[in-house]
């Protein structure tokens, strides 16, 4: 029986005035926000990999964390100790969901069959923990990037035998997800990209990726899986050029292979900013394209050029993100996964709680701010008025294709008058947002 | 009669050994490269705006160039002086093409009709200069970003009357392009983007952009224009979020509005690197999607976060770009436009020549390097061998959809053996490229 | 009599609950914070250039603002209209200070003498406005970067005659600052940098800069000016390599020329982030080096690679900055200058108020958060405990130079035991900050 | 006896026309360049860590390289096998130097004393290999960043006992360097920086760093070491804020602690570009400050925000770097260390050779280009003429302090004439460089 977290009492809501570090000040899961419980809006998930598999290793140094399951021992026994600690953590924290990669929960074996069997056995273990604790699976995924065989890609590998190895892992990870009642299945193309065009046939590799994803979608339908298939865009890391750069790139890829009705995106805040966009830009663009699926809610560092995967800690920024998620109608079967890790110097068991409590509280407070922005209505009204011209009969005629270029041109020539621009009122609108953030 | 450049003799090819600054050392236009004249491969164009309209102004200071056509006078007279100087420059330099925006060649009038008439008169002037000098128009375009009326976008403007103003300009610029025998028509969405989501409806604006582009395509067909319609992607500047971020984003946009067979991209090297890609990545991706149209051949500065629009000056980098253009089958009706400006401290008439001569020589030398890379064949052969597995019957069965996920998974399980990765040989291939660059 | 702002009533404090856009919700100037009035802590200044001289022009388009003083007319008359409007704005807004460049307030003349006289006359005008309104001058400065003569630098110019032109402007601007009771004098090296080493002698130019600054310091002392001389660091813009890259670079420069006791830095938040640092890093580093002087309080955009000069709008970020300023003992004769501009689409007179009101309220709220951080004391206590080992006798012996490398090495060998690291507790501390931000 | 590289014949110079991949085309070590042998100019070193210790691990995946010394076994035996392979590689490649960290060559022991003894034993082994092969040590250094005890810094650690652990390692690494005839000693502050100001006292940590470096310098003098002590600047990685950000920052740090005559910098090309500078900027600035010591000759990727440590492969860029090194009088006891690694997909023994051969050839060709630039003289002459005004009597009077601010100001007023700027001729000069690059 794991006692790694047993000195920490379950985390409870104590309100904004609380002075207790191991308590929620804003996350009050049953509070009704815009007609739904806070927990149902936020659908928080803890990720297995960062909190239970990462050792604190970085490119310049070895692991710093001394968890019991990182000590020596038989691999499957360590996997069971880790699983017990993980569910103990989820329960004490009170998140409704978790997420995992196949290799997070079950060690790579010495043969494909052994890996397959490791996973199958661990799915039983996870299932029992889910049953016991009530914690559910937001999504499963397969790790197709850590093993050296995938160094040149999984589905985009120059070698079709490695493509097939990837197919095995994904089939098994989808089966695991289905058995555990997972609500989505995610593909992050960790090595689906390239280092140099000198050894890469982009056209060939994109076709491979399109084929692989089509196979995944076909399998989903054959098995009757009702969850959503999600691609997670990310630029630049680990391959210099990642194929799934951002949401707009993924949309183009999906349309190219006829999959835009089948697959959505899992947007990570840190990946958004790495690709040169704001987080809310990625949300709005994906929503506009009809592919907004789920969220990885972890921030990056604006001065660093890589994925730092930190917990969100800025309420005004998260309030805008949640406002746009709410305006897009929410996330459906998706949720907010903390694809975040405590800093490598945060050695203690308590630090895992501080990271998650801080992240959950920031999102909860941001949700309350977004609620006020919506209830107040001035932001939405300002937008409506700005585009009012497009709701006039002439505006609709243009937008719906009943005007040609030369008709419009000739109209302007005959009217022969300039049109004055109107203020965009950005500072006014930013102040309005702050009114709700710093009430 | 302009005498601004008359002290400079026409630029001639003198060979690599020449010590003359105002001569070509590599650009030998009639030299046959891979079966075509160098001039036909490179199809160089000078841009009107940077070399004849930009005053040297930047965000921190006023103009530095003292051209005759920047001195006081009647606007249309200055436009004629400028046109004469421009064609004098093109002729002395020996580029076959030029490019322009409507407002580069003809001043904005005080009413729409006056602007329309200014352009019409200047098209006559340009036509005479083309006739006289033999210089041709690679593409025309409309400036929909400098005037304050377009501060919130042209086609994506919240006000449909400004959309109509843009339609007039584009109709007129397309007409001008057709009258002048232009081989393409370009749209760069200078203000088609947004500053803040607080005042922006992305979904609405994308629909407006789709509509506008459809109107342009319809007009092209109605008028029987045979040139290519090109979108020029650019991230981040001048709007914080530009809709046409990069080639992959444009491809997704085109498919969304059913235009992917109608419109190609004009890729600018500097825009490529600003969007977080290498220049050759943008070329390869556009080629793979079937939308590679034309090139703006100007470099950025790797340490600066904006478009510096400098002339290319690095042969190894340009050799890779040209290699990929050649591998993609060339540019068709496109060409290499120098969307480049001499530095603001480069005050003299000679400096305009040095910039263009340097750029042309770098491209010419790069073409010769690319020719060697192709004739040598080792790069292409290495690529072919790397993907050889996909040409086997099993590889083809997978790629062409004759295998399911579970079939591949079960095959791997029954074979039950790992697959060893093979070296990507990046350093070997990079050295091979350098063999041709620094011969 | 200016009526540009006369439709806007003076801005007053109405408290957090106010629903009025043209009022302060947090800036309550007489509220006592840590023993001083809020106004005395914050010492806000409005900058003349962005709000009264910038036309909305950017590299891709012409001006968008239609202020009365941008219309045609005699230059000196327009300068007077502008000054009246500016002081009207300062008064209605209620900031205690303003800042200006010589060329902001008085137009460049056709000769050096005429420019000199323009400034002298406008100093009289400004002095009367100061007298009338009670608004004071935080600092003056000279614009040595906009005119084409300075394109290759002012003090770092290859031509000593241009160095002398700069000396004239700075002498006159210092005189103006003194006459107007300015509390500091700022030098921002707008063109003190270079584009390419090919035409630049860095060593020579640094010596020129050192000489110029020494002359400025000597002049200050000869004139008995009691204010602080400030350098404003900035990387990358407008020259590719700016000599005053960041505070640490400026410190090294000052020590090289023996000026580190004479000159401090004016840190701009946007310049800090452009140089790859956080804003509070620049504050802490300058404080550690004893050169923290004053602040330009304007934010950048984390996805853009240039100086966007936006008003601050993020309370948690500003709270950290103000916390570090307070921990460093405050700014002395410095203040918080909004070197910020409303967006180019923010056309209306009201928008100037919204920008400044938002910025002032964000800083005021941030000051209240910082006050709580200090009164609570847990942040400071955690820091003290972390470094407690350095206050032991052994710690002091090491730090004060009473131990050699080999003594420490031999001690470790004889103790022969490893030392366990302790948690850095970053997430706990970040949550503690948020406790005060989102109370 | 190592046979890992025994299938590869020693690499020889074969000239530019050679078609052999495992040969030099430009590096002809005895060729005389500007009066010195090429080998004496370039002083190439191979680094131990990237080529013999790095397993191919990255943040997203485990090792990819299967070297014999990465297989299981006793640590000291593996260290000896690795050393034998390393010297076999150095010899076959023909570089005159290598560099190492203590922990590269000798494994961390279970106690401080055991680590100390491991190093002592391996120094004997390395000494024998040096003796046998003639390969020399360019510099040694200590790894104070990989072990978890250093996660919060070594000399800048909050715990003085960890400072003392660092002292032991540096004392031992300096002793090892001296015993092996090393020509310099390097300190790279891998964890000398911080993640968040919330847990960091910058002022305290800088004092600790100053103290540590003073102890190192004192020890050097007590031991009579004649080599140079070098600091290697790097921004941002692995700590978010590294104290030794760039050369200018290091210079300021050295002056603050009175060490600017004692310590120089080891400039890494990749670190230069990460800090927002060009490589040649760092060289020129360090030369101007008198602290240019040695070079790490590895490139980064302009689109990636971290240290990719790739071999140089662009002749025009390296030619500028070498030109500025030569203009600064060369590197003295320093050299060109390839702090570079083959890509993680470059699995084969041959790939290690391709990486180094390519890098050496690029530098050799670049040296030949720089030689031409110097012999031609036009670049130097253009620079001299640009600054000619500063050599006039008046120019010297200003620069040497014989003019006051007001004297210059009054002179300008009485002359009362503007000064015209002259062209910076950047494009002309860039073309001139290319004349030698693509001859
Ligand atoms: Co993620
Ligand atoms: Co991430
Ligand atoms: Co451009
Ligand atoms: Co362009
Ligand atoms: Co600024
Ligand atoms: Co500023
Ligand atoms: Co290095
Ligand atoms: Co490095």
From TrEMBL, chains A, B, C, D:
Cofactor: Mg(2+)
Major place of residence: cytoplasm
Residues at the catalytic site: 101, 104
GO molecular function, one term: xylose isomerase activity
Localization of this protein: Cytoplasm
Binding site for Mg(2+) 2: 268, 271, 307, 309
Binding-site list for Mg(2+) 1: 232, 268, 296, 339
Record protein name field: Xylose isomerase
